[in-house]
Amino acid sequence: MNTIRLDLIRESLEGTIPGIVATCSADGMPNVAYLSQTEYVDQRHIALSYQFFNTTRRNVLENPHARLIVTHPQSAERHRLLIRYLRTETAGPLFERMRAKLAGIASHTGMSGVFRLLGSDVYAVLDIERVPAAALPAAPPRRSLLAALRATTDTMAAAADLETLLTDTLAALKRHFGMGHAMVLMLDAAHEKLYTVASLGYERSGVGSEIRVGDGVIGMAARHATPIRIGHMTLDAAYGRAIRAEALDGGLAGALETEIPLPGLPESRSQLAVPVRAAGRLLGILYAESAQDLRFGYDEEDALAALAAQLGAAVLHHQHAADTHDDAAPTEPVMPAGTPVEVRRYAENDSVFLDGEYLIKGVAGTILWAMLHDYTDRGRVRFSNRELRLDPRIRLPDLSDNLEARLILLRRRLDEHDACVRLVSAGRGLLRLEVRRPLRLVEVAGPPR
Predict the structure, then answer these.
(1) Range list of β-strands (E), 30-180
(2) Is the pLDDT score of 335 beyond 60?
(3) pTM of the prediction?
(4) 423: domain range?
(5) What's the CATH code of the domain at 190?
(6) Which of 29, 154, 244, 350 is the most buried (most CB within 10 A)?
(7) What are phi and psi of 330, to 5 degrees?
(8) Where does the GAF domain lie (predicted)?
(9) Measuring CA to CA, how many Å separate 15 from each of 10, 36, 131?
(10) Are residues 268 and 347 in the same domain?
């Protein structure tokens, strides 16, 4: 009788020490093979990667029962599972999660292009028994994840606005979870991209950097709205940065002019991307990484998934709250002085440059351009979120678009560039434009050159 719960031995499924599967053909010929990937599905099911039509797969199609031995990566404790093949999934969250993990394993071993997941073979776990053998003492837990989750959600509940929420959440991840490298990316559903709106622990913030939905661990987590965790080094981020460096060396700097590098560790060895969802839709991705192998286990994935659910609800709350606004207190106007600054906008991609230096593009660029036009034409300096959301010049994809996140992105880009234009909060749902030098607006129909 099974007295060992599958969820209590999840760490042994990580594959740090490859699992061993034993099968038997219909005519009684046994076969033993190593496994590259075993995935925990729920308390009664696991999934094994199907990469080749080999003897193991031929046997389970003939005789669905198999034995699997898994080993804990720290204690070396072994468990033997009796499993029964149920089905093969070739699409959906389970398949995509396993495919992304397999890509990380392949890149770590120099086998990219060789490993290809054909399917996720789902098995029922019928019995679990401990293999009698000496084992090392279990490592003590790094910290109480429930206490960390409680402290972080308390911090989130105290945030007065969206920008504070994102900043304080990342700070709490470092303080309470010990995750010192993290970022929040919001979804641009219309363009199938994610853009970085907050980060922590990197040399450059990378605010405004983008990644396509479906690219890498982050993009794959967004595409299928499911957490993806890799315990070994992946070359995805390093590959992107290497391509960018080669383009720059090859004299293609102009082509990259409006690209902001995605922040990342030079040697990321553990990655965890968790969807931020609310009201049944994807809002973005909470991402953490580490230079340490196996830094994130199943427990960290569970904790961040719960945290991301709280974050999604809080993001939605602050979005709605920003649509109402207080009466702004009167302030002394900022008088521009000095030589004029040329603000150039390229209509093709809504990119905006200040005195030839790239600042922002896309929806955030359109917002800035509309505000600067109102300022130069009518001297307007006060704007409400609600007015911006309904402004036809900005062409927000739909009313659910995350305007507040784009305003945070725009404000941070202006601050990072120490620009002569600033966006300052003037109360709930209100912004004040501060312009410290005269502006000369120039609009160009073609692409940036």
Answers:
(1) 30-34, 38-42, 45-50, 65-71, 78-89, 119-130
(2) yes
(3) 0.79
(4) 341-444
(5) 3.30.450.40
(6) 350
(7) -65, 140
(8) 161-325
(9) 10, 6, 17
(10) no
**Closest alpha carbon to 66 in 121, 114, 141:** 121
> Total domain count for the chain?
3
Maximum Cα–Cα distance across the chain: 89
Q: How far is CA 188 from CA 37, 363, 403, in A?
A: 32, 9, 10
What is the rounded CA–CA span in Å between residue 190 and residue 228?
23
301 and 202 together in one domain = yes
Which token pair is 174? 């470092």
341 in Cβ contact with 417 (< 8 Å): no
Phi, psi of 193 (to 5 degrees): -135, 165
Q: 122: closest CA among 151, 154, 97, 147?
A: 97
Q: For 386-404, how does the pLDDT look when each residue is reduced to its tens digit (9 = 90+)?
A: 889 888 888 776 655 688 8
| Antiparallel, parallel or unpaired: β 45-50 and 38-42 | antiparallel
Q: Which residues contact 303 (CB under 8 A, 6 or more apart)?
A: 145, 146, 148, 149, 177
User: First vs last Cα of the chain: how many Å apart?
Assistant: 71
